[in-house]
Amino acid sequence: MKPAAPTKDPPVIELRGADIGPDPATGLALLRGVDWRVTAGDWWVVGGGHRSGKSALLATAAGVQRPLSGGHWLFGEETERLAESRLIEHRRRVGVVFENGGRLFAHLSVAENVALPLRYHRDCDLDEASGRVAELLDWLGLTRQARMQPDRLGRDLRQRAALARALALEPEVLLLDNPLAGLAAREREWWLAQLAALHAGRVPGGGRPLTLAVMTDDLEPWAAHGRQFAVVQDGQCRAMGGRESLPECVEMLGREPRPLAAIED
Amino acid sequence: MPSGPASPVAPSPARWVPGARLHRAWLNFAGRQVLNVIETIHGLGAFALITLGVALTKFNRAASVIHPLISRQIYQAGVRLLPVVTFIALALGLVIIGQTVSLLSSVGAQQYTGTVMVTVVVRELGPLVAALLVLARVGTPTVIELGTARALGEVEALEALGIDPVHYLVVPRVFGQAVAVFALTVYLVIIALFSGYLFAFLQDIPLLPGEYFRQLAGAMTWLDFVLLALKTTAFGTIIAIVTCYQGLARPLRLNEVAEATTRAIVQSLVACVLLNALFIFFFVYLLM
Question: Where are the alpha helices (DSSP H) in chain A?
């Protein structure tokens, strides 16, 4: 595929016929033939059960992991053919919040975690980055925890710190892996409200509306927020459509996964 | 295992030849070991080249993040090891002088004390001991830290932020540990030479300080300085590369970190000793 002309908005993330994996247990692909287009302004909610390949899909979409076969495009450019410096440029435009505490760097404090990408890419010291860091931590209610090590924080605050780190470089797309898992009801409300604000462009420090893609094992909380829905199941990723498809998605996820051989497309 | 209908538990008596089977098993074992060694060397070589490439192309990128990390590595691998190195250096001086001086004076060859000290401490033991101390004190935590970071997905998180893990995690360690082994060796050699004289003095060996240092200076050549610098930086680099490789190169699970640590220590040790042998060969056969 030729990269689209910059005037016409190319999809921000695109996967075509991508096999995603490998499954660490078997060494085989977790998902086969994934076609997925994320365009600017989307809010994708991808549902899938435990070990269905959601996290691998997220890592592949972010450009951290290569698809086993098939193509992956970031902002209209095929990542396979990109020079490393260009790929890094594109990765900076994609923020990732990993699951289960966000994979914060254990040897750095919360503020240092958030400052690291800024310091690395802008080549500045901690003081110069502190303005942006303080702004983000304040917005996410983490000012008091700024100097703490991540392992001293509860899961909910660690997850927030991971969001702060992902937002530090002012990304255009935000990928979240199961952000609501294991959170209290109140904290879930907080997350949904913040993500809605980010999607609407109410970003700390100003900025464009963010494109979101959320991997989740429970679609229900996203019913009022998601715009596009997809389901990852039985080794396949199926884009289902808008909100009207939600009941069908929920029903699919509720079903027992079938053995691979029995899938008909 | 023989493939076929015969059960592996009870092989048919006609086909069962114990010697052949044992032979085959041993060959398989040896072959697997050889392949493992080749695979490790291949992986380490590739990793070292990648690190070299990153160090050269990105040395000044993100200097305000990477350069403090290098200083921290020098502190952790160098400054913090000063007490233990002092202790070991004193002990080395005592042992070598205690053994050799009495031996040399019994045959009336005190004038070789300086030569023995230079050969043993400056050329051989100093660099190796400093390298072993750095390996034990810094190499081990490196594998554990990086292996855990890899197992917990922190390395992937770095990549997602557009940060090159080799640049951020490996390059500072290579520079820091290379500098640290070099500096510690110099320190260790100086302390050992002084303590050597001190113990000789305590044993009432008739050796004047001026005479002792003249012997030392006479035994050292300019080549010793060059080789010392080369050897120690090479040891530091080897330790950093091997420990980082074992921690980072493969996706580990948390319970595999301990095994990776052992592997890294043994491989670093073997690599340092082999390199030392190479230096001896170079020094003894080609330059003397």
Answer: 54-61, 84-92, 110-122, 126-139, 155-167, 185-199, 246-254
Q: Do the beta carbons of residue B197 and residue B94 sit within 8 Å?
A: no
Best of B65, B164, B167 to mutate (most A CBs within 10 Å, chain A): B65
Q: Which of A65, A92, A106 sits opposite B162 (nearest CB)?
A: A92
Contacts of B158 in chain A (CB under 8 A): 105
Report the predicted TM-score, pTM, of the whole model to 2 decimal places.
Answer: 0.85
Domain span at residue A30 reads 10-93+172-184+210-254
Helix (H) or strand (E) holding A38: strand A31-38
Is A127 inside a domain boundary? no
Chain B residue with CA closest to A101: the answer is B152
Task: Examine residue A67 and state whether it is found in any structural domain, yes or no.
Answer: yes
Residues of B with CB under 8 A from a CB of A: 61-65, 145, 148-149, 152-154, 156-164, 168, 251
Question: pLDDT tens-digit profile of A153-197?
Answer: 988 899 999 999 999 988 999 999 999 988 889 999 999 999 999
Q: How far is B251 from chain A (nearest CA, A)?
A: 9
Residue A54: which CATH number? 3.40.50.300
Contact status, residue A5 vs residue A176, Cβ threshold 8 Å: no
User: Which residue on chain B is closest to A62 by alpha carbon?
Assistant: B160
CA triple A64-A123-A153, angle to 5 deg: 60
Confirm whether A161 is domain-assigned.
no
* Cα–Cα dist B165/B248, whole Å: 9
Q: Does A72 touch chain B (CB under 8 A)?
A: no
Q: Give the CA-trace dihedral at B35, B37, B41, B43, to 10 degrees.
A: 60
Q: How many domains does chain A have?
A: 1
